[in-house]
Amino acid sequence: MTTTSPPAPAGSAKADQAARRDLYRTMTLIRAFEEAIKRDYWADKGPGFDIGKGLVPGEMHLAAGQEPVAAGVCAHLTADDAVTATHRPHHFAIAHGMDLKALAAEIFGRETGLGHGRGGHMHLFDPATHFSCSGIIAEGYPPALGQAFAFQRQGTDRIAVAVTGEGAANQGAFHESLNLAALWHLPVVFVVEDNDWGISVPRSASTSVASNAARAAAHGMPGVRVEDNAVETVHAAAAEAVARARAGQGPSLIEVHTLRLWGHFEGDAEGYRPELDQVPGRDPLPTYRATLVADGVLTDADADAITAEASAQVEEAIAFAKDSPLPDPAHASAYVFA
Description:
The chain is α/β, with parallel strands linked by helices. The protein has one domain: Rossmann fold (3-Layer(aba) Sandwich). It contains ten helices and ten strands. The strands form two sheets. An eight-stranded mixed sheet has the order 1-9-10-6-5-2-4-3, with helices on both faces.
């Protein structure tokens, strides 16, 4: 982990055993959900239907491999804190405590979903957990400032977390948000997920700096880059940034060099990725499991039980979604405001 000055204040450097188990449990639940969505996105609905066309409508962007970012950051948040995520949002939604059934139903385009099946997986809005996301690049940064400003004016210790990908760090909204957050000392944590590929372009072909954490210093805030995609390293970095925000000391930026195990979207041929052969060996989930077993935090039986529990939760949510009604076409104009 490399830090760009000014440094973040000292915080918790290591999670305790209970926290480490919880981190693994969160990562496992996220992966189980993503695998189930991938399975049903490509499911054969029957004669007359194309594979991948029907069970889950629209495009699908999955975050397998990026679980350490969401689990490590959200471990320090409460449901009263706000999170704005990207078009690849499920891992943060789940780590922040979103109801799995409502999430699954929205993804399947069902009336019982978060947006009554109207928004799809890139437009998730959940007042219960103060969560939102968007398919527009870097769109979540300005709304996070608004939430952080409200929290500050209310005199609470609530914070906002704004997540984006490394490709969005070249957008004007990114720099404008960092500047204003630092100027007003807003309680916001900026998170950049660097999965190496902004759709199909490597960062080195589009960005003048090797680390977006270096850009934090230009806006007068701490910046840290986590290189190893390890959930406990993310957890430690987030502990400092969240504590700083809650204490009224202003914003911080965390960039995590993470891993997109699968394509930019389902159906991406990934011909632009020369490193695909090495990708499975960098999967953070089996790596963390092995670490916890070696450290005596979990046994293999414990880890298997966590996997089984996560699978059962996810399948219950998927079944709920599939059994839920589709929106009535007669109500197509409902929830439309002008």
